[in-house]
Amino acid sequence: MTDDQWEIFKRQIGQCVPIGKIQFEPLSDKQQEELLEIMQEHQNNTYNVKIIKRLSEYELLDKFYELLTEYLSTGYETHVKTFYLPDGDKIYLKENSAFISQGTTGLCTWSASLYLLEYLLTIDVSGKDILELGSGAGLLGIALARKNNVLLTDVSPLVIERLNENIAMNNSIAKANYLDWENPDSINSKPDITLCADVIFNPCLIRPLFETIKRFSNVCYISSTKRNQETFDVFFSLVKSENIQFEIIDFKSEWFYLPERDIVLLRLDLQN
Ligand SMILES: C[S@@+](CC[C@H](N)C(=O)[O-])C[C@H]1O[C@@H](n2cnc3c(N)ncnc32)[C@H](O)[C@@H]1O
Questions:
Q1: Coiled-coil regions in this chain (predicted)?
Q2: Cα separation of 80 and 86, whole Å?
Q3: Cα 262 from Cα 115, distance rounded (Å)
């Protein structure tokens, strides 16, 4: 590709002009290296896959094929979802297309967090200090940060990076921090409310999660999709064994579409 063609090509790729409108020619190694940088900057993975497929009729550096394999094998495709809230607001979230990708479940929104959010909006929580455990993509915390002081936490550095992106995309004042239930010393907090959505899934993590909830919470809301009754019962028996006051909240969700519907909602009272 001549230098003049390359200047136009580069601008068009940077702006994500539809692939069919762009004139493709073989690229020099230097141009290919620069193209890789542009593709990584805009992170539009669906578009990047199309570029690589279109360029594959020419000789390409191996790095393009490595990137293509990564996109296709890890469910690394991302999109931005718009969640319309019952009060007329919207929350935008960048999510991965696959439920499990890049080694974590935290890059998409699970039904339990939609359910808990809808419930909390009906009781109109405001002016509180809120801590969320295992925040994932961040819907719950970001929505509540419109009226509360919210700290979202997660163990995965990738998830925390995504949380910060999503917080910025919504001009939110929420904060995101690293917190591992197995070693929860990274924060020091005694919020009014602790939130947990879809975090009861791994039997080995139930005790550390429970201890983390006890350490930080006054009141804790936990919404959990019941995929495995036994796993949930282990958590529930810990609550009962320590005589923690609890309430099972009977709530019918009507606003959000919930792909998973068997969700239980608990409120724990740990003030005493
Ligand atoms: C199923 S996702 C739920 C995400 C979000 N709450 C939702 O409902 O959409 C579970 C989340 O727990 C986080 N997690 C898993 N193990 C953890 C640990 N040891 N400490 C803190 N977070 C953890 C994961 O990174 C993931 O974001």
A1: none
A2: 19
A3: 10
CA 200 / ligand 1 centre spacing (Å): 9
- State the closest ligand 1 atom to the C-alpha of 113, by its place in the atom list counted from 1: 8
Q: What is the pLDDT of residues 134-176, one digit of tens each?
A: 999 999 999 999 999 999 999 999 999 999 999 999 999 999 9
Kindly report, residue by residue over 61-79, the tens digit of the pLDDT: 999 988 887 777 655 678 8
**Per-residue model confidence as pLDDT tens digits over 38-50:** 888 777 777 888 8
Integer CA distances (angstroms), 157 to 103, 104, 160, 182, 228, in order: 11, 10, 5, 15, 27
Q: Which of 233, 229, 148, 157 is nearest to 194 (CA)?
A: 148
Tokens matching residue 170 = 């919504």
Which residue minimizes the CA distance to atom 7 of ligand 1? 110
Distance (angstroms) between ligand 1 centre and the Cα of 180 equals 10
Residues of each domain in the chain carrying CATH 3.40.50.150? 97-269
Please tell me the CATH code under which domain 97-269 is placed: 3.40.50.150
Task: List, in order, residues 6 or more apart from 88 with CB less than 8 Å away.
Answer: none
Query: In whole angstroms, what is the distance from residue 1 CA to residue 26 CA?
Result: 6
Ligand 1 shell residues, CB under 6 Å: 104-106, 109-110, 112-113, 134-137, 154-156, 159, 179-182, 197-199, 205
Centroid of ligand 1 to alpha carbon of 106 (angstroms)? 6
